[in-house]
Design goal:
Elements: H1 4-33, H2 41-45, E1 48-49, H3 50-53, E2 67-75, E3 81-88, E4 91-104, E5 121-129, H4 132-143, E6 156-164, H5 184-188, E7 201-207, H6 231-293
Parallel strand pairs: 1-2, 5-7
Antiparallel strand pairs: 2-4, 2-6, 3-4, 4-5, 6-7
Helix pairs in contact: 1-6
Length: 294
């Protein structure tokens, strides 16, 4: 039969075990909630105004990255360029990029302005080609008078994906004019026409801007809709289960040791009683023998 102290200790152990189980459940829930689908695919596919996700001179959040956005503005002549080393279907090629002056971020129009220098600017990637000559031909086509780049008075409505800026990569030959990444800061420094403010991101063009036929649409990375599990949280959940087992085992081991100790004490007591009785019996026999001899 369990002693009262062990029953009280069992109640304490059960409280600790319940606490451990709740912590393990919390870790398990966090493993699936924080590492499930990267985002709601339907929400990510729904275009939203650029102003809902990003303001000039602000950082782009993880939740806003790769979202389709709507924005109005125009391409600034003379600010087109080429970004090298852009892979498409496993082929390294070139992106033609430009300076997009934002007349309206989809929520409210920018300040009244007649030129790009008075409007916020953001880099935009227009298309891909496999060779630099085709990229330069595309730029010449965009710079031609026949191409409608839009203007402050007649802006173009554009659909694009809002992308996170990349770190600048220096060219191996040290040429500062070679652009190897979609770094907003680096691209902005190549523009001949400045801007009133700058976006710390870039646009991947989908529709609305004039794109020469020599350029292919840039293949966007699809949204990852797979469900992933955070293995670190799973490991922590297993740890809490191990702690539960350890708590119960420690209680059982202490009760067992106490029980074995009591058994040993009772055994010693029975042995001592048996020895005492045998000694008394032996003394009694000796007394009887001595009485008969008299």
């Amino acid at each position: 039969m369990l002693k009262p102290k062990w029953l009280a200790f069992l109640a304490l152990v059960l409280v600790v075990v319940v606490a451990f189980l709740l912590l393990g459940r919390w870790q398990l829930t966090a493993a699936f909630e924080s590492s499930g689908a990267a985002a709601d695919a339907e929400e990510y596919l729904e275009p939203v105004p650029l102003g809902d996700l990003l303001e000039p001179d602000a950082w782009l959040t993880e939740e806003a990255a790769a979202r389709p956005v709507t924005v109005s503005g125009f391409l600034v002549p003379g600010d087109f360029g080429v970004v090298e080393g852009r892979l498409q279907d496993g082929v390294s090629g070139f992106w033609v990029v430009g300076h997009f002056a934002v007349t309206s971020d989809g929520n409210e129009p920018s300040a009244d302005a007649t030129n790009a220098a008075d409007l916020p600017g953001i880099p935009v990637a227009l298309g891909w080609t496999s060779d630099e000559a085709s990229a330069q031909q595309a730029i010449d086509s965009l710079e031609s008078a026949d191409t409608n780049l839009g203007s402050a008075g007649a802006p173009l409505s554009v659909l694009a994906k809002l992308e996170v800026g990349q770190d600048p990569l220096p060219a191996r030959d040290g040429d500062p004019l070679r652009i190897l990444s979609m770094s907003p800061g680096q691209l902005i420094n190549t523009w001949q026409t400045g801007a009133s403010d700058y976006y710390a991101a870039w646009l991947l063009h989908t529709e609305g801007l004039p794109v020469p036929d020599s350029l292919e649409s840039i293949a966007a990375v699809p949204i990852d809709e797979s469900t992933r599990v955070d293995l670190l949280n799973i490991f922590y959940a297993i740890e809490w289960l191990v702690f539960c087992a350890m708590a119960i085992y420690i209680w059982w081991r202490m009760v067992r040791d106490d029980y074995l100790s009591d058994l040993a004490e009772r055994s010693d007591a029975r042995l001592a009683e048996r020895v005492r009785r045998e000694l008394l019996l032996e003394l009694a026999n000796e007394r009887d023998a001595s009485g008969h001899n008299r």
